[in-house]
Amino acid sequence: MDPDGFVGEKTLKPLTPEALAAFKAAQDRAGVIYISRIPPGMRPAKVRHLMNAYGAVGRVYLQQEDPKRAYLRRKFTSTKKVHYTEGWVEFKDKKVARSVAEMLNAQPIGGKKGTRWRDDIWTMKYLPKFKWYMLTEQVAYEAAVHTAKLRVELSQSKTEQQQYLKNVELARVLDKRAAKKREQGEEFELKPNPQPKKRPHDGEEHDKRKKKKGDVPLDSVLSSIF
């Protein structure tokens, strides 16, 4: 550590074949349960604490509520804390994960009398053949989609703002011209912009030329027959 208290760059050592094999084996043994509803106010640390009572827990991820919904909730209610809507819990043993999901699903959370979530109900399901990397890929994909959507909305908002400012400037110029005309005793009329002439397509021009070439006077045709 340098004198300023900053830690320098860390060098990550590659995993040995034995460590990599052990990591893959641990991933194969692990199981994931899905919690479709997180009680209001419950945080990841509390979920981990409750699940640790049934088995060794690996990773825990809780999805925060939609930002727009969170904004409205904080604006019109007294609750300012972060709320989570759903979550995933990884147990180091898939058998434990399956048994926990079957045992706790549709059951009260319980706890001491007077605790906040005593009467809330667990809604969870074991996800067979589901691994944690699938969740991280899904989260990354949703984040990318959200970012792209936000960029489109910002671009559209910028275009609308520019058009609005353009219309405001045009209205200001027209008002100034109208005031000047009134001072001179003249009447100001707003003339519509001339519409550009529609250019015929190449096919239409070809048909017109063909008709002109094919037009033969009727008298010449009759004289050639008789």
Automatic annotation (TrEMBL):
Chief place where the protein resides = nucleus
- List GO molecular-function terms, semicolon-separated: RNA binding
Any one GO CC term of this protein is: nucleolus
Q: Where is this region: Disordered?
A: 181-226
The keyword Transferase belongs to this UniProt entry's keyword annotation: no
Record's keyword terms, sorted: Nucleus, RNA-binding
Family annotation (SUPFAM superfamilies)? RNA-binding domain, RBD
Q: Which GO terms describe its biological process?
A: endonucleolytic cleavage in 5'-ETS of tricistronic rRNA transcript (SSU-rRNA, 5.8S rRNA, LSU-rRNA); endonucleolytic cleavage in ITS1 to separate SSU-rRNA from 5.8S rRNA and LSU-rRNA from tricistronic rRNA transcript (SSU-rRNA, 5.8S rRNA, LSU-rRNA); endonucleolytic cleavage to generate mature 5'-end of SSU-rRNA from (SSU-rRNA, 5.8S rRNA, LSU-rRNA); small-subunit processome assembly
Cellular compartment(s): Nucleus, Nucleolus
Which InterPro entries does its entry note?
Answer: ABT1/Esf2, ABT1/ESF2_RRM, Nucleotide-bd_a/b_plait_sf, RBD_domain_sf
Gene3D superfamilies this protein is in? 3.30.70.330
Which superkingdom does the taxonomy of this entry point to? Eukaryota
Family membership: Belongs to the ESF2/ABP1 family.
Descriptive protein name = 18S rRNA factor 2
Q: Which source organism?
A: Galerina marginata (strain CBS 339.88)
